[in-house]
Amino acid sequence: MGRVVMNASVSLDGFIAAENDDPGPLFEWLVSGDVPLDDSGVLKVSQASYDHVRPYWDEIAVTIAGRHVFDITDGWDGKPPSGVDHVVVVTHRPTPEGWDPDAPFHFVDGIESAMAKAQELAGGRTVEVAAGDVGGQVLAAGLVDEVRMDVAPVLLGSGKRYFSSVVSEHLLEDPDVVVQGSRVLHLRYQVRR
């Protein structure tokens, strides 16, 4: 089975977006450098961020996200983000009308079926879980191995929480990676078992 990683950019006060889903300056670090992170020509980060993020992106086979994220991104126009092979969407609604059935997106009902599908598709590679409601559910179910945070130097005050649906204590190990980039601090924690 592939490693399961919960990941997102986050404010210092623990939010991944404002209530209206606007991430504000949380992604400023993705355009604050001079090293291209992908082939888009848009994402340019510091060398430290590139050295931390690019190898991680290269190991991700599948991303699990909720239907809300899928909807606000317009399904990434049918192309998984960051070069990921597949996206598993947790939803209780049907596949969007007119959706291309050949697009590498898989719509499932619940986190258990999402994780089973993601692990099947990943073939031993990394499964990434988007932070927020679905990510919190996966963490609460004990299915996350690692937590990654790209901490932006901003306070949002309120909004969508990184660990949205987590309502009980969960212990993480000490951070095993701390990388300072331009406009970001990258952190990595292993989940204590």
TrEMBL record:
Top-level taxonomic group: Bacteria
Gene3D superfamilies attached to this UniProt entry: Dihydrofolate Reductase, subunit A
Domain Bacterial bifunctional deaminase-reductase C-terminal: 4-169
One Pfam assignment: RibD_C
Annotated protein name in UniProt: Dihydrofolate reductase family protein
Species: Agromyces larvae
Record lineage: Bacteria, Bacillati, Actinomycetota, Actinomycetes, Micrococcales
